[in-house]
User: Which sequence fits this backbone?
């Protein structure tokens, strides 16, 4: 993909710049900004030298400090016009994208972002606007004009600077690194910029600021965290490489075909070892064994082979001679893992059986055990995997048990650490607010009178009066909700991933708040819909996408063209959201028996099985993972009637060598005690937070002054009225109370 295509896709995906009739359109920018910019010595912006452009931006920066609200808004619009690429002077989309990138780096270099941040803080603290919005019966776009302009500029700057291009100069690369550091550091009133946006989210959900444009806030918050926490450790990078290598083998054909058409059929997870992805579909059908097709138990409909919503295009010409086809590795795609706890459990069972006693956590002593057990232990140790989480938990236990010996922990001030420290006091409020917005934007949610209004920044002042206007508004509302779901799902996943890399108990703290806020049933409710329709929804109007709408003549929109939608068969935005939600569900339920049982209690198996209809490899993988962890609790009859699903889990999901996920032998031995497990985890988390972040804690390890003279010599501040009641206190508490000297001697 060329640099121009990358920039075009980046701007199309942002969806912040769409110029619709219900928004501030191109005509205003053309009337106001063109006249202002062209007044610079009578020339256009593109004709100015770099020094002249910098001088003009400096004048705009000075004008942002005026007290007149209307004048300040006009200046902000002029800055937005620059950030959008001075489109009135451009003839092609390529020119718009080029000048947008040029101007964004210029604006950042001149300090515009910091000035915008001050204006944003002022708008957030504008109690008059908040009070006015609370009293209004209906809130529209007009109530958030200033906020939307500021947030649009800031989003453009964050997203443009975030993306690295091949032709970037060393100055731009240095500016990008400085911007990342700035966003992740507590430079804005002693806290990161993301916390200011989190505050906007909580104020909106508490009904104190119902006019806040939540879609723009959430998009900016997502991109800000994506930039500020962009830390690629060697461990996470290695995992990513392995993950991508696996999906290269799974979807190599779909990747190649994507160069010829925007969207094609994906072979998902059902063709890895047996089929050659370079063969056409007809050859595949001839090679399929009819016995394999009908080998399922009667009454089962295979979710991996039905309802393909993407029709394959004509097969492309072969990319290489048939003799040079790629040979795929045999066997399972993943190498199995073994935890140390699994080895301990295996040896404990073996010693009880053959010797009659155990040796605790000893995994090295094999005396008295038969030779097959020796070989088994050797195989288990060869696949032993120690995760970062296990190392961090063990380290935390040592710090808790031996605080004096271990000394004080040196905590690295990473962006994730700074963000967690800032979010810690109000983390539960942030999580609840995000889940409230996710619930309000979910397609399965029903409108309630007490629910929050997330459409404040999409509804116009005057409601539509024609069928065409109503259709456009309906598409815009649906698209608005889809973007909110996308931003929240990506934001939560980013927080979980980076906090888990930073420290496991930070991850567990966020995950537990998600569980307590009913995140598990909320995600299941989200998927309890016609997921095929959601994935293939067409809530977009290509003619109104930026920058297409400002450089091309606007075609006539009709009800028929709006109903037909675009030519894409998939909505990648919704597919992205679904994968994120599945990954969140996987992260908060992995290795948690009580939360896995919640999946069983909420009857998630049929909901997840319906999601397997979507033929996309990554989405199917995470669905199969969720089915795998609860398979042992679904009963023998379910496993018997879903053998193809069981087969897909076995082939595509990583397993533990001694994992009995398909049998459920230990169900009777493991009762479901949700409260006990969560309380034990909560106790570990609180100990971690207290030890690491409560610097004023009064623990038993605080040094005590045992010198009598030193203690009596300390000055004690007494209240002013102490001398009035001192004698009465002595009489009541000292002289009138008998002293049991014998009891004191016995106590000694």
Assistant:
């Amino acid at each position: 993909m060329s640099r121009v295509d990358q920039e075009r896709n980046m701007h199309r995906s942002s969806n912040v710049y769409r110029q619709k009739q219900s928004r501030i359109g191109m005509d205003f920018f053309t009337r106001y900004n063109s006249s202002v910019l062209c007044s610079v010595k009578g020339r256009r912006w593109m004709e100015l030298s770099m020094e002249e452009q910098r001088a003009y931006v400096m004048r705009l920066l000075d004008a942002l400090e005026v007290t007149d609200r209307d004048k300040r808004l006009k200046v902000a619009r002029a800055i937005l016009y620059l950030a959008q690429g001075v489109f009135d002077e451009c003839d092609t989309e390529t020119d718009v994208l080029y000048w947008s990138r040029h101007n964004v780096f210029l604006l950042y270099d001149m300090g515009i972002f910091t000035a915008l941040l001050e204006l944003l803080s002022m708008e957030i603290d504008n109690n008059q606007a908040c009070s006015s919005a609370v009293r209004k019966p209906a809130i529209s776009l007009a109530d958030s004009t200033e906020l939307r302009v500021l947030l649009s500029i800031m989003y453009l700057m964050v997203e443009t600077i975030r993306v690295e291009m091949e032709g970037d100069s060393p100055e731009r690369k240095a500016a990008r690194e400085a911007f990342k550091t700035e966003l992740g550091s507590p430079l804005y009133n002693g806290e990161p910029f993301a916390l200011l946006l989190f505050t906007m989210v909580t104020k909106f959900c508490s009904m104190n600021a119902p006019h806040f444009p939540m879609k723009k806030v959430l998009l900016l918050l997502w991109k800000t965290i994506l930039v500020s926490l962009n830390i690629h450790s060697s461990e996470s990078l290695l995992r990513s490489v392995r993950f991508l290598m696996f999906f290269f083998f799974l979807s190599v054909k779909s990747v190649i075909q994507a160069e010829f058409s925007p969207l094609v059929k994906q072979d998902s997870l059902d063709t890895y070892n047996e089929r050659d992805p370079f063969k056409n579909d007809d050859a595949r059908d001839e090679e399929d064994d009819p016995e394999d097709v009908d080998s399922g138990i009667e009454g089962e409909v295979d979710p991996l082979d039905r309802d393909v919503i993407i029709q394959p295009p004509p097969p492309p010409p072969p990319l290489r001679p048939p003799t040079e086809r790629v040979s795929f590795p045999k066997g399972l795609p993943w190498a199995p893992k073994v935890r140390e706890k699994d080895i301990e459990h295996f040896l404990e069972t073996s010693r009880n059986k053959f010797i009659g006693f155990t040796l605790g956590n000893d995994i090295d002593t094999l005396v008295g055990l038969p030779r097959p057990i020796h070989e088994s232990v050797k195989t288990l140790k060869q696949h032993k995997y120690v995760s970062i989480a296990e190392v961090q938990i063990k380290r935390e236990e040592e710090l808790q048990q031996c605080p004096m010996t271990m000394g004080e922990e040196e905590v690295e001030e990473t962006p994730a650490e700074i963000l967690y420290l800032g979010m810690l006091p109000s983390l539960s409020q942030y999580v609840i607010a995000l889940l409230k917005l996710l619930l309000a934007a979910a397609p399965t949610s029903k409108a309630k009178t007490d629910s929050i209004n997330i459409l404040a920044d999409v509804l116009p002042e005057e409601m539509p009066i024609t069928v065409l206007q109503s259709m456009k508004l309906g598409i815009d509302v649906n698209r608005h909700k889809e973007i909110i779901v996308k931003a929240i799902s990506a934001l939560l996943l980013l927080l979980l991933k980076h906090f888990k890399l930073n420290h496991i108990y930070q991850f567990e703290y966020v995950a537990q708040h998600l569980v307590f806020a009913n995140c598990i049933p909320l995600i299941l409710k989200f998927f309890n819909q016609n997921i095929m329709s959601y994935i293939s929804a067409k809530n977009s109007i290509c003619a109104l996408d930026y920058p297409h709408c400002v450089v091309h003549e606007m075609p006539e929109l009709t009800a028929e063209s709006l109903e037909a939608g675009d030519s894409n068969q998939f909505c990648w935005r919704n597919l992205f959201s679904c994968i994120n939600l599945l990954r969140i569900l996987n992260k908060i339920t992995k290795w948690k028996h009580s939360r896995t049982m919640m999946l069983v209690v909420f009857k998630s198996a049929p909901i997840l099985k319906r999601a397997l209809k979507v033929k996309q490899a990554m989405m199917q993988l995470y669905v199969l993972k969720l089915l795998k962890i609860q398979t042992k609790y679904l009963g023998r009859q379910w496993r018997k009637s879903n053998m193809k699903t069981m087969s897909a889990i076995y082939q595509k999901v990583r397993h533990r060598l001694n994992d009995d996920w398909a049998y459920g032998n230990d169900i009777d031995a493991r009762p479901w005690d949700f409260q006990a497990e969560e309380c034990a985890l909560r106790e570990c988390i609180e100990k971690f937070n207290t030890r690491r972040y409560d610097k004023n804690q009064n623990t038993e390890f605080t040094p005590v002054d045992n010198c009598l003279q030193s203690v009596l010599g300390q000055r004690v501040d007494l209240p002013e009225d102490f001398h009035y009641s001192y004698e009465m206190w002595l009489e009541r508490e000292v002289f009138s109370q008998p002293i049991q000297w014998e009891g004191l001697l016995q106590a000694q």
Notes: Residues 1-39, 232-258, 260-324 have pLDDT under 50 and may be disordered. The longest helix spans residues 467-502. The radius of gyration is 31 Å. The CA atoms of residues 85 and 96 lie 5 Å apart.
